[in-house]
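sry for the spam today, last one i promise. struct tokens for design, 410 residues
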């Protein structure tokens, strides 16, 4: 194994694995830390954790354990993957994990770059944009677990990290890898360890990748990994894929603007059923009854709890944020488990927490990377008779669920 990656959630990890696979690396995504060694043909291993929203100390411990396993596989460079919308609170977890990994690797120049131009995320003057909006005006300010209220990455990360934060401006990035390397050196000489690097185009990411050739640790969204495979002699290609026949089921717990648009589009063409957190908590709806409904429908049934921010807040105020979140995750996990046991062979999920809960419930230890469905979302083979798609809340076109079912199988 050449490149070792640690992802803070399951959808983001598949996004990263997709980026690396398209650039020609043989990639496997692991759900949690494997108990044994990787297969000898794996060039990039992505250890997917569910650490984005847990306590910082726990996130650090899990990430360091993942790092230890990846180092044992022979990796020479490491990547810490977080969301391209920098999902975290001011108390963590991005800063503490980045600090711990940098310390363990003695990495003194650590790139911080969540840019992903293919999905509208860009970093300019140290600020994160979603399309033409600052991050804190994009809808992410309403995220139920990690509301992002400041687009200034240095200002947001400063309370999380014990190290000073630097910056490499777009004007430097535009001039190429050598200039980026020199700027990283200058920031290091000025006492900066974590360095925010601007990027607004894929070409910027390729140049940043070249500049990172000798760096031990890179952090960011999947976009900044675009240029890394070339450093290992890889060239772009298309992963092999065999479509899976059988029944499909879509599950959505994401409340992002993009996902709610996708749910609305799907509802006009396919059977959909909303499940509300209060109904789950009060046991007026169960996974078994919802599965009976889904298996009796034609087309692609979608079960969703994606609601407007005001609705989500009202539920959190009534039951508590953690109770509501756990109830929804547990419901979708149980529903997915029952569905697969009943013969469903294609599972499509939307939302990082939902996807993580489903992957854990199905005990999916290794995921082989297939073709891209939409930017940042690959098809994944989970076993001989099961394929999945794990979509981050903000990703995908409005017809994502229908498109995913078609790419996964028939």
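last one done:
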């Amino acid at each position: 194994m050449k490149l070792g990656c640690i992802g803070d959630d399951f959808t983001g990890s598949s996004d990263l694995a997709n980026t690396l696979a398209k650039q020609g690396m043989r990639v496997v995504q692991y759900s949690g830390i494997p108990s044994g060694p990787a297969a000898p043909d794996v060039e990039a291993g992505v250890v997917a954790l569910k650490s984005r929203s847990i306590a910082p100390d726990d996130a650090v411990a899990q990430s360091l354990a993942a790092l230890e396993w990846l180092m044992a596989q022979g990796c020479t460079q490491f990547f810490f993957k977080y969301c391209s919308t920098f999902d975290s609170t001011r108390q963590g977890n991005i800063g503490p994990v980045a600090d711990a990994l940098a310390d363990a690797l003695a990495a003194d120049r650590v790139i911080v770059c969540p840019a992903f131009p293919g999905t509208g995320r860009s970093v300019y003057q140290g600020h994160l944009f979603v399309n033409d909006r600052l991050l804190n005006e994009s809808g992410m300010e309403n995220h139920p677990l990690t509301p992002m209220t400041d687009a200034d990455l240095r200002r947001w990360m400063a309370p999380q990290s014990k190290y000073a934060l630097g910056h490499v401006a777009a004007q430097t990035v535009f001039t190429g890898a050598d200039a980026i390397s020199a700027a990283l050196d200058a920031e290091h000489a000025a006492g900066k360890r974590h360095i925010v690097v601007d990027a607004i185009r894929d070409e910027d990411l390729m140049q940043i990748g070249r500049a990172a050739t000798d760096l031990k640790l890179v952090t960011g969204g999947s976009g900044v990994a675009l240029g890394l495979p070339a450093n290992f002699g890889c060239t772009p290609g298309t992963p092999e894929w065999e479509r899976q026949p059988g029944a499909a089921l879509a599950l959505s717990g994401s409340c992002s603007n993009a996902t709610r648009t996708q749910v609305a589009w799907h509802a006009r063409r396919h059977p959909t059923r909303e499940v509300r957190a209060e109904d789950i908590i009060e046991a007026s709806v169960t996974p078994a009854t919802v599965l009976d409904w889904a298996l009796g429908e034609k087309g692609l049934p979608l079960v969703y709890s994606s609601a407007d921010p005001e609705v989500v807040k009202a539920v959190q105020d009534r039951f508590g944020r953690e109770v509501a979140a756990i109830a929804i995750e547990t419901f979708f996990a149980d529903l997915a488990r029952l569905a697969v046991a009943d013969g469903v062979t294609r599972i499509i999920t939307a939302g990082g927490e939902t996807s993580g809960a489903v992957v854990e419930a199905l005990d999916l230890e290794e995921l082989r990377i297939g073709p891209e469905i939409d930017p940042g979302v690959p098809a994944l083979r989970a076993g001989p008779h099961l394929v999945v798609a794990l979509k981050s809340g903000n990703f995908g076109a409005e017809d994502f669920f229908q498109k995913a079912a078609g790419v996964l199988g028939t």
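The first helix runs from residue 10 to 22. ok im logging off now
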